[in-house]
Amino acid sequence: MTSAGAGSASFRPDVPGIRRGPPLSRLLLSKIQSTGRIRQARSWSWFPSDATAALTWFKEIFVTHPAPGPQPPRDALAGTLRRTEIQHSPSSIPGREIVQVLTEIPVGVGSGWHIHPGEEVGYIVTGTVEMAIRGRATLTLQAGDGFLIPPRTPHNARDIGPGTGHMLSTYIVEAGQPLASFTTEPDDR
């Protein structure tokens, strides 16, 4: 987790659904400047006067701004591998969201058989990874190789060395679902 800078407002990043955002003072100044109401700021007349406008304004500041730094994703794999959420936002596809994660896999460690509630489009940044996917031959992926895992397809990634593997994965998944869930090894392996 990144820590808040001195004097910045911070939110509890360990509470589900709450992300640490930019300092409140910077958000307020940005809102004032974007609305052209900088001269009115001294009297607070720039602040919304009715509850609906205030709620909309609050959501615009605190909900639509992405986290300022990488965050660990909340899923089953977080206890097995070191995973850093790079970005997370709604998709243009209704009911879907896009999540990008950098995963670090130590030599000899496997992710464990798991599924995602949507597609995983990945790229091996460093290392050599053995990717077992249900119904397919096991792939040996090296730095520079890409891969695609269909929705809810059991798979297991294992770094085979010589160094730690790093994968950059972009998920297009069902909104509100855990990013990954463990499953049993398929019978066809």
Largest sheet: 5 strands, antiparallel
Using the CA coordinates, give the radius of gyration: 21 Å
Query: Proportion of β residues?
Result: 25-35%
Report the CATH topology name of the largest domain: Jelly Rolls
DSSP strand count: 10
Strand order of the largest sheet: 1-2-9-4-7
**N/C terminus separation:** 37 Å
Structure annotation, total helices: 2
Shape: globular
Q: What are the low-pLDDT stretches, counting only 5+ consecutive residues below 50? A: 1-25, 35-47, 57-67
Secondary structural class? mainly beta
Q: How many domains, as an integer?
A: 2
Protein architecture, described:
This protein has 2 domains: about 5-65, no CATH class; about 75-180, Jelly Rolls (Sandwich). Strands 1-2-9-4-7 form a 5-stranded antiparallel sheet, with no helix packed on it. The chain has a 3-stranded antiparallel sheet with strand order 6-5-8, with no helix packed on it. The chain has a two-stranded antiparallel ribbon with strand order 3-10. The protein contains 2 helices and 10 strands; from the N terminus they run ααββββββββββ. The protein starts with about 25 loop residues before the first helix and ends in a 7-residue tail after the last strand. The protein has helices at about 25-35, 50-60; strands at about 80-90, 95-105, 115, 120-125, 130-135, 140, 145-150, 155-160, 165-175, 180. With about 190 residues, the protein is mainly β.
